[in-house]
Amino acid sequence: MLYAPTTIRYSMTSLISSGEFGLIRRIRNRQPSGGDGVIAGIGDDAAAVLPTPGTALLYTTDTFVEGLDFDLDFSTWPQIGFKSMAANASDIAAMGGTPRYALVTLCLPSRRTPEEVDLLYEGMHRFNETCGASVHIIGGDLSATDGPTVLSITLIGEADPARIVFRSGALPGDALCVTGDIGGSEAGLRLLLRRRKNPAFAIPDASAETLEKHRTPRPRLREANLLAASGNVHAMIDISDGLSSDALHLAENSHTGLCIEADTLPVRTATRVAAEALGIPIVDLALNSGEEFELLCAVAPDAVSDLAAELMAETGVLLTRIGFFTTKDLGCLLRTPGETRPLVASGYEHFAFHPSPKSRS
Ligand SMILES: [Mg+2]
After folding, report:
1. Distance (Å) from CA 238 to ligand 1 centroid
2. Residue 355, pLDDT score
């Protein structure tokens, strides 16, 4: 057993013709050169960067495991690279920061090829172009594995220390607002799962946008900066687990209660079409869809309409008031036209730790 890792590493070397050092060189050579503040990037013992003077550094990390967090039946390598960078960037944005530098670690089984690694990085670079970001990959690690492919990204961001937005600042009376629209990511995944289970199932053309939201979500980078800079956003989180559970995180961290008004949830037509095809109630989809990467925030109630107008004018993205914060003793509630009931963290991701997408249908 002592030599097992070495055996695996040599096995990868023989199967990945360029070998580990060759692969690192290959990754480095395909990198856009330079980068603001980069003193040393890939290829030295450690990366060195010069932070923008006066900024606080934000750190986040996220790991993606083949078969659990991504599925090669549903997404291409560029899409997987794009989404993994998007998920991390969304966490930096949710603090009011700007993503700057990334460390990328890959554990590769011997069946993977250098071309697949190229495509994965291509997706990470495409994220920058598509989302107006400038994340520089400054290092990482490579290892062989006899398990599934694992991709882990550590992302470093910068923020004005006076403008960092935490989960903990919501006040009773604040409006609960969300950017964009919700429900599409889970709808897209469920359409793909349904078709795999039943190849005769036809994905409606009118729901195609949900597939895109599942495969290549766009985190709200510019929107987050505008919201944070306004001074009227008291708490913020990105929707990665699901609206219901992420709203509960805001309330818990802020020691407040809240009420979500179900008939105000912004859902686009493509998501409604998907929900109908799948036979899932649209409110359930909107409340429980994970990996939305929309921003959920507590806004000073008098500032909502001006902030929504500013966001629309600057970015074309909606900011919708979907409820309000209350005192903690009132609890967390969901109000539908027919009834008011406790808000439950029933995101699809919460039934088990690392549920396999394959177990969902
Ligand atoms: Mg988050």
Report:
1. 5
2. 42
pTM for the complete prediction? 0.91
Tokens of 328: 């903690």
- Please give the distance, rounded to the nearest whole angstrom, from the Cα atom of residue 244 to the centre of ligand 1: 14
Q: What CATH number does the domain located at 175-359 have?
A: 3.90.650.10
Ion ligand 1 neighbours, Cβ < 5 Å: 91, 238, 240
Q: Where are the domains of the chain?
A: 4-161, 175-359
What is the CA(231)–ligand 1 centre distance, in A?
Answer: 20
Does domain 4-161 fall under CATH 3.30.1330.10? My reply is yes
Average pLDDT over residues 301-327: 98
Q: What's the chain's average pLDDT? A: 90
Check residue 272 and give left, alpha or beta (phi > 0: left; psi -120 to 50: alpha).
alpha
Question: For position 249, what pLDDT does the model report?
Answer: 97
Residue with tokens 């013992």: 45
User: Alpha-carbon distance 226 to 268, whole Å?
Assistant: 23
Ligand 1 centroid – CA 82 distance (Å): 17
